[in-house]
Amino acid sequence: MDAGLMADPDASLARSTERSAEIEKAIASDPSQFRILTGDRPTGNLHIGHWFGSLENRVRLAHAGVETFLVIADYQVITDRDGVGPVRDRVYSLLADYVAAGLDPEKVTIFTHSSVPALNQLMLPFLSLVTDAELRRNPTVKAELDDTGERPMSALLLTYPVHQTADILFCKANLVPVGKDQLPHLEQARVVARRFDERYGRSEAEQPVFPQPEALLSRSGTVLGLDGTKMSKSKGNTIELGMTADETAKLLKRAVTDSDRHITYDPTNRPEVSNLVNLAALCLDRSPADVAADLGDTGGGGLKKLVTEAVNERFAEHRALRAEIVADPGLLAAILADGNRRANAIADDTLNEVRRAMNMDYS
Ligand code: TRP
Questions:
Q1: 38 CA distance to ligand 1 centroid (A)?
Q2: What DSSP assignment string belongs to 226-294?
Q3: Could you give the CA distance from residue 40 to residue 68 in angstroms, rounded to a whole number?
């Protein structure tokens, strides 16, 4: 039997951090040995926290030549909420940001869960390889359940890490750029890949059907909301990538600062001010300490002015491109249809291989 899933989260994080540095080197020397799958839930519009936490990194990896798949995880929207919300608009909003950010839809396969039946069918054999005790121990699922308040655990919330395993393995991705909250899911995916090989065997190729995917840790949680707490759409404390320069200025005017006119970068004692300094620094590609030193005694007003300019400058090109993309009727639907067609072809092949490995091939 395997050691318990995430038996020691600290050790797992340390190992993944070390391994991520090795993988970065391997990418630099030969990107063709990797295939990336990653994705987002379409639960709202992407904001600058997503940009610096994940989107920028995905663009970097794709441009470095790593073959990339991107799932818009529409079925994950219904893990912890009752309705789907305006999911269609949100799917297209995500897609617009991906493309405007520089992910070339000819090279990067962008698709929606619900459009790829064979991917979803993989969940059935995968579920047979996982125990309910393992699923209940998953710390990320537990945290997500806690966030829903009094809501009972749905069977989909409990099992979605296995669905996410299908996202990763349908295209045999071996690399998943994620934040550390996703590490338990990656460990689950490796367990499934290994047990599939042990229990159901191999297709005619005599190789394991699935690779054991690894996490590539990206910096995450570096940008807080404008009130100094976690960025979240529901709190109205985010700057969305698609906002106009005016909307951005208005939001930043309301950002929380403090009464000390001397600007410093001190995240422990001055979280709100430091968060704004950090945001300016990220946009300007400078260190937060330097940005704070330059500001000196300008007070909250001077700080906000700098952040507003820095954000609007940094995202001007993205926003202009995004506006063009959104204005072109049919463009996003055509991009998604093409991504879904490519994802379906790969998922069908993988499912056929799985049928052969499981001796369920009756053709
Ligand atoms: N769970 C991820 C999130 O909440 C989104 C996601 C869905 C994903 N499928 C994935 C991430 C597969 C990495 C790999 O952001």
A1: 6
A2: TTSS---GGGT---BTT--HHHHHHHHHT----S--S----TTT-HHHHHHHHHHHHHHTS-HHHHHHH
A3: 14
Pocket test residue of 36, 70, 79, 182 for ligand 1, highest count of atoms within 8 A of CB: 182
The backbone torsions φ and ψ at residue 36, rounded to the nearest 5 degrees and listed phi first, read -100, 135
Tell whether pTM > 0.90. yes
Q: CA-to-CA distance for 34 and 23, rounded, in angstroms?
A: 9
Contact (CB, 8 A) for 203 and 250 = no
Contact 197, 210 (CB under 8 A): yes
Helix (H, G, I), strand (E, B) or coil at 110: strand
Containing H/E element for 136?
Answer: helix 132-137
Name which residue sits closest to atom 15 of ligand 1, judged by CA: 40
- Exposure string of 306-320, with b = 16+ CB inside 10 Å and e = fewer, is bbbbbbbebbeebbe
Task: Dump pLDDT digits (tens) for 129-164.
Answer: 999 999 999 999 999 999 988 899 999 999 999 999
Three-state secondary structure call for residue 127: helix
Residue with tokens 């996410």: 164
For residue 58, give Cα distances in angstroms to 68, 167, 346: 8, 17, 21
Atom of ligand 1 nearest to the CA of 164: 9
